[in-house]
Write a structure and sequence with these properties.
InterPro entries: cDENN_dom (IPR001194), dDENN_dom (IPR005112), DENN_C (IPR043153), DENN_Domain_GEFs (IPR051696), MABP (IPR023341), PPR_rpt (IPR002885), TPR-like_helical_dom_sf (IPR011990), Tripartite_DENN (IPR037516). About 30% of the residues lie in helices and about 15% in strands.
Amino acid sequence: MTEEKCPQLVDYFVVAGLDPAGPWRPLDEDVEPVTDLVVIARGLGEEVPEGFTCIEKTLGGHSAELSAGLINNPHLFLCYRRGRDKPPILDLGVLYEGKEQLKQGWYVIETTPYSRSASLSSGGAPTAHRVFLTYRRALDSQGLHTLGVTDIALLLPSKGEVAPHTFCRVDKNLNTGMWGPGLYVCYKRAVAKANALVYEASEYLLRYPEDDLEAFPLPESVPVFCLPMGVTVESWPLNTKYQLPVFSTFVLTTASGDKVYGAAIQFYESFSRELLSERQSVRLGLLSVVDRRPITSRSLQVKKSICVLSHWPFFTVFQKFLTFVYRYSISGPHVLPIEKHISSFMHNVPFPSPQRPRILVQLSPYDNLLLCQPVSSPLPLSGASFLKLLQNLGPENACTLLLTVLTEQKLLLHSLRPDVLTSVSEALVSMSFPLLWSCPYIPLCPLQMADVLLAPVPFIVGVHSSYFDLYDPPTDVVCVDLDTNTIFQTAHFSSLLANFPLQYEVLHLYRNNTTEEATLEFLLTDYDQIYRRQKQLELEIQEAFLRFMSCLLRGYRTFLLPITQAPSDTATDCSSLFNLQGFLKSRDRTQQKFYTQLTRTQMFTQFIQECSFVSDRHACLEFFDECVQKVDVEKPEEVRLVDLDETHSGEHTVFIMPPEEPQEPDGSECPALYSYETFPTLKPELFDQPQDQLRVPTKGSAPSSPAPRRTKQEIKLAQKRAQKYSAVPDMWSKCLLGHCYGLWFIYLPTFVRAETAKVRALHTAYDVLKHMENRKVVLPDEVCYRILMQLCGQYGQPVLAVRVLLEMKKAGITPNTITYGYYNKAVLESKWPSTNQGGRLRWAKLRNVLLAVAQFRQPIKRRQKSAMMDPDQRPRPHSTLIRQSSWSGLSESSSHESLTGPLVKSNSLNSMKTPNDKLTVCRKRPGPDGHAQSSLSSAQVLGCQPGGGWDGGERLQLFGRFSSGPDVSVVDPSLLSLCVQVLMSSCSLCRSCNSLVYDEEIMAGWTSDDSNLNSSCPFCCASFVPFLNAEICDLGPVSSDVYVINSSIWLLPQGSSVGGAPQVTVAYLSPLVLRKELESLLENEGESVLAQPQFLDSHSIIFWNLVWYFQRLGLPSNLLQLVRASPLSENSAVRVRLLWDTLTPDTDQWPPLYVLWRIHSGVPMRNYSWRRHNHPFTLSFLEEVLRWVGMNEVHKAVTLFLDTLAKQQGSPRIQRSLYREFLFLTLAAMGKDHVAAFDKKYKAAYSRLSGTLGREELRKKRAQPPSPKAVDCRRSFHPPLEC
């Protein structure tokens, strides 16, 4: 099969900026920075200077007089002036003269504008104790785009006043007097831009591809996120240093809930003055105010952004690619246009997969980037960086914000670094797993969308810190400054954190490791080593939060309330699905307030609904349930919750070369013709068209798929269980048996779909579940129950789904999130039967009455006719009563023969007839050489009507293992005209020691590895691949005097044919391997492949192994309908016989003892054309062996056999072990009932002979009994095969 195409890495390339053609929509203007500060003494008659603003009130409305505590109060006030005519003020301070030195670059406000002293201390104070305000101003060369003071305020802490968010407080008291409250100054800093105009980025300048992708149309709001603070047109002095590009990231959420990640870089490029109006030019300082004369000492720049959109958060890779594209646009000339590089990256770079774990992209001879496959984890993939979270917030604030998120507070993150906002916001959302944030979530919010901060709903919003230059945050918002590691207005849950000290200890440890990691990064040159260490550390931090959430929600599943009756209008409410009061009572009393808030959130309600119904997150929720079970121990900190999956990691690296440069016809290099002054207008004709289009990433299969698949967690758990059970003999067979039943339930949707009586087929599957429970089958997962529940919902049987759930709980299995979701979906969406007793229930009652009367009359009839009754006549079989049920008129006992008894129809009184009116027999068909091709004996055949299945379909299917009792059911001989027999055997030859290995020994030799096809030889311990052999025989016309036993019979429609070679040999797969292959087949080709005629030829290994296991367990299927050979004019009955011994014995070897016995006894059998051998096994020898076995003297029989072989010249030509020879001889002479007794006798004889001959000597002569694991496998897969 060809390798599946990998999904493409990048979906769109976008250029955003200001369209020269307009229209230009202006945004709010920036606030001018503070450029001057003065202190005035109003008590001495000084006035506020022109252009200055006096601060007369504190933040709380009290007097802002600076000298209120002085004896000779001059009534000092602080004034400031805004402007752009000089470099802005950067910082404010207070100088205590004589106690500290003035820092370099700082200025002191010593006098007022009227040359009086501006000291804040008393006028009579000595010089050494004077107090002055100070400030620091930006340098002239740094006057462009530097931080500057934009607002100043005074506050009185004793009056309850605190500094507003984003304000810096100077912790020095301005009131140096003997009385009065303490007075402090605070200020806000923001980017002090040059002359600038800000416009909205509302349209695309360029995009590639131009047409929307079908799976993901390009959103119209992308330009706004590329330039969240708008497009700025700025005038710079000519000597201004060029600004470096700024990298930013953002996240978009589609209508379906999928995340799309964006990465952009913002840069400046020159802009034409002709595009500006006169007013705009004056505003930007390009024209003089008086005479409108052009000012040539300034340049005009505009902000632009290039961006890529992807479904994968490879932010570092995208940053390198965008930086390369930007540098390519400002350098040159180049041989290739920039479009070639963009299209090459988009079309040729795939998402890293297990087949391509490392992708090295060579952008140019000097630029490359490396993509590594993300860590395989059940946690959802996101753009979170937990390292950045701890680096910017620390462990204490990180835990505090987690509780803030869990209680759905309004959360506002801000930073001057836009790329940090997205990484930290994603981490905040991810660390609340499994709860999913469903409220507004904008990690990087554009200025145009800032109104979301006024919304009356919880939100997580990230903004650039320059947002506060224009607006103040709402009072009910928790503000987090990532640049200063401060949180404002947050609730306190310190008591909850105290109950989980593990989280503090681990997070503090990770904070230390983070510092070490940052130091070691400069010492390591191996990128792979750095990448692995960072990913490992990220995973460990995430694991700490996951452990916190697991402890927080421990035991929540016990409070889920399943729907067990017809749903009402409130059935899907959280109060109906979850016992909230019981959950709260189970928590610590000190945490009641927090848990009450948690259970009222939308996240918790959605979490309960997702746990109760089928959702796209079922795999993640199932993983969380496993984590909850792991932490429910005494020391949860010692349990690993997340394990790195290294199974798909590798060193295989795929190299992707840059676009090839063209050459001249003479082989010389082409001239470099492409040079750009600004980022160019992309031309569609210069883009390379994709040669092999990468697949667009799509979501997984719908959760309503007809056969719910196993998740990675279930597969991993099943592998661990199989590995554990493989070392326990009596558990290994039950493990294999559980996987065999799992195979049938995976096939069940196909079987039910082909049946006419679908409801009866579902009840058959329910009986199989009950039978599995009775046999104590070890199920590796919940797929059996889950598939049946899903089918109950698909075919409208909610009552049966409830019974399946009760049966599941009876078996001691608590349904996980996936199974529980399918159950509630089935009972919620299906139509429930009426509670009134309908006609079907009344007919069932009448039927039971009639059957009961018939049962009572039988003893009377026997007594009356006992004298006339033929002694050989078989008694009438007991009929099966139909149990009355208020849920359904169907019988609980309506199942296949191998489980509960005779199959009867529940929709007709005809089923009361005892099916023993006729007896159909088959004659053996002579072969070309006159010998018998087959030997058939009597069996039960279920009675059916012509042309009908269970309820009158085209096909008659008879299935199951039939008992060997006296009762015989019959089929009309007119239905069977031709008979096709399929003989199957799993007996395989070990090439190392030339020994035949039989079915139970092969099973015992399998390993728990679901990718290993080998078994182990019990004699030489060599590994070999066992084979399954199938032989298709045409038995010819069927007459009415030959019995058919121990078989399964199918009646194929007229015109069917039996196909394939006379004998088929395929690998005999372990149920673990077969299940993996079957699931892979269904995942790649769909369920319909199991019902297609091509299934037999295209996937013969899977087909014949399924037939073998289904026949072993007596499970119904439609697989044999696919067996076709040649056209037949009439219907053909296909029967399967499972043989113990090989189908193709080596005739150069001595015949086995049981074959010699049958030859001497004249029993008809298959002709193998045995050659004449001088073997010592005469009839008297066979009778002597059987006599010793019958007298419980097996050790004498073994001694006789070994002595007889020792007398022969040369090596004996025997492929079977001594145990196998005696076992088959016993079966041929005494029957199957003696198998268990023979095992005990032979084991006792082996123990007795070990003392005289020695175990090693017996082993060399292949006289040891089968291992306990092999015996248990035979016992679990009873009854034994035919011999």
